[in-house]
């Protein structure tokens, strides 16, 4: 269907949908809404029915502008035509991605065929658009990497590198992800980089931790080598050599040395302020505060009791200085 002329696609899509059980359950089917040229290649846009022409114009402008953001920051890449499909229901999402994804996955960048699929609820409000742009930029980063590296290197490109750059390019880690990493550090659950070569098909929480750790690995590359170092690494990856050897040649750091430094750096990051800024911190601290208040009150009661006993003894001594019983029977 991807090779078909654009005007034929709705017809072919309708034929395909009629024969596809997953799509037959869908409540609505996305329709072709035009094309736009981007620095990543020509983009065919598909939107859920009911979206107006200003929505299509907005999406076309967003995909074009955000693609430019990527090449401005990371350097140029090859062009290859792709599809951007916005859907409004899970059945349609599974249909376009060709698989059943876990509920927490709501966007996917495919390489074969080149297609970005985003599950959206609305794009009318500024908040919804901001959310869409963040997700779109994340998925466009994957599309960028698909175009940048040769097929042999693409197979060697570790999952953490793909996701780390995508998270960093789309605004960095959100608060929830930062806290997931922080708590994992406290609990000693951080993963070594070598365990993050594949980070899909995990639970929502372990996936969030893997994404966060991936983003921090890219942050460390930029901290050590700057944006220029990251651009150089990306540029050198075009050659097709395995990732780890390109990493060493490009940045001058043996891969095992970087992996070890990452482990130490992750453990040393000071995130106390982040923990204290957690809106849920009061629920975590409340039991501790109650126990502390109980202990303080009990200690104060004991001290007061001791003072009273002391005062009683002093009064006894005053009334009976000789210590002789003066009871009268
Ligand atoms: Zn991703």
Q: Please, could you describe this protein's structure?
A:
The chain has 329 residues and is an alpha/beta fold. The chain folds into 2 domains: 1-148, Glutaredoxin, CATH 3.40.30; 160-277, no CATH class. 60% of the residues lie in helices and 9% in strands. The chain is built from 13 helices and 5 strands. It has helices spanning 9-18, 21-24, 53-74, 90-97, 126-148, 151-156, 159-169, 175-186, 204-237, 243-251, 255-268, 272-276, 281-319, and strands at 31-38, 41-47, 82-87, 107-110, 115-119. A 5-stranded mixed sheet has the order 1-2-3-5-4. A hairpin with a 4-residue loop joins strand 4 and strand 5. Helix 8 crosses helix 9 (204-237). The relative contact order is 0.07. The model is unreliable at 1-26 and 320-329 (pLDDT under 50). Bound molecules: zinc ion (ZN). Zinc ion is lined by residues 138, 142, 163, 166.
